[in-house]
Amino acid sequence: MTRRPFLPFALPDIGEEEIAEVVDSLRSGWITTGPKVKRFEEEFAAYIGGGVQAVSCNSATSGLHLALEAAGVSSGGQVLTTPYTFTASAEVIRYLGADPVFADIDPLTFNIDPETAAAAARRCERLQGIIPVHFAGQSCDMERLGRIAAEHGVPVIEDAAHSLPATYAGRNIGTFSTATVFSFYATKTVATGEGGMLVSRDAKLAQRARTMRLHGIDRDVFSRYTSNAPKWYYEVVAPGFKYNMPDTAAALGLHQLRRAGQMRDRRQRIAESYDRAFAGLPLRCPHRARPDDVHSWHLYVIQLDLESLTIDRDRFIELMSEAGVGCSVHFIPLHIQPYWRDRYGFHPDSFPNAYRVFQRAVSLPIYSKMTDDDVAFVEHTVRSILEKSGR
Predict the structure, then answer these.
(1) Is 204 a catalytic residue?
(2) 188, 242, 369, 388: which one is catalytic?
(3) What is the 3-state secondary structure (H, E, C) of the chain?
(4) What is the pTM of this model?
(5) What is the mean pLDDT of the segment spanning 83-107?
(6) Residue 74: what pLDDT?
């Protein structure tokens, strides 16, 4: 019997329109920040709505850095966030000389727990901001987190790397806070290879981010070459960074954005199929805190019932790989990573919910290029392994 090809954990869904747009950019001569970046920013702002402005950048990490810098986070400050995230969410705080303050997660949603966050905020002496991370594409409780921020007079900068498109209480993520940052990394729901987008209704913050993303220069290359001022002239108004997005990435983004809803709907159908297929198995499917919210389904993370199994999480992933299915783990909590652990003296039980979730978490493939046969193969493989591994 012919063995089917290995099913990777994630693949981007790139169509002929994206390819043609990139080729058009290459032929146009604009391969750095240019007209397509401007179009992408305009279309993205319109897509999110709520009167936001959009500032493109070369990654969500750089977008978070720009947002925090523009919001006034500075050396000696503290920013509240979650330990159950990728290190970028916290490292940008350190870029500015501030310190992250972690609050444990809700063990059902894996999002930051508002009650724990409120208690952590009260303990802070120099709180300068809050960074909620919308895990897997399910929105955090923005109402309660917003109340905490208002109580302490600090901005909320949302890490929405997983959350395009997603909603909370009927509104798009990106319309609630001081600023929100999305990711277009190769595995994300909208992919440009590398890239990110900062959105904000605060015009001064957006302008500061635009300036700082390109060396603190007051005009980017495209505006210099299309304005009436001397093309060679520019002014450096701050010591900025090199965070601009090229037109080749924006070319992908223009068409990915137009297909974002269609691709999300496909991921939701896969998630619903998984939910049905895994009923009765020794695992927990993703919990929906607010079923009326739009979940982007960037990730589908199961929790293994280890007490009912003869294998642990790591062995389960090995068996899935041997059977031909790629899996991953989201996330290794920051408080057990050497840098964060050693700098702040954490131990695994510092954030017990995050640590317990990590020990049981497995991210299964969920991307719009998956065929129905791919989905059925994942379902069959999960069921086969768990049925053979029960106590």
Answers:
(1) no
(2) 188
(3) CCCCCCECCCCCCCCHHHHHHHHHHHHHCCCCCCHHHHHHHHHHHHHHCCCCEEEEECCHHHHHHHHHHHCCCCCCCEEEECCCCCCHHHHHHHHCCCEEEECCECCCCCCECHHHHHHHHHHCCCEEEECCECHHHCCCCHHHHHHHHHHHCCCEEEECCCCCCCEECCEECCCCCCEEEEECECCCCCCCECCEEEEECCHHHHHHHHHHCECCECCCHHHHHHCCCCCCCCCECCCCCECCCCHHHHHHHHHHHHCHHHHHHHHHHHHHHHHHHCCCCCEECCCCCCCCCCCCCCCEEEEECHHHECCCHHHHHHHHHHHCECCECCCCCHHHCHHHHHHHCCCHHHCHHHHHHHHHEEEECCCCCCCHHHHHHHHHHHHHHHHHCEC
(4) 0.97
(5) 98
(6) 98
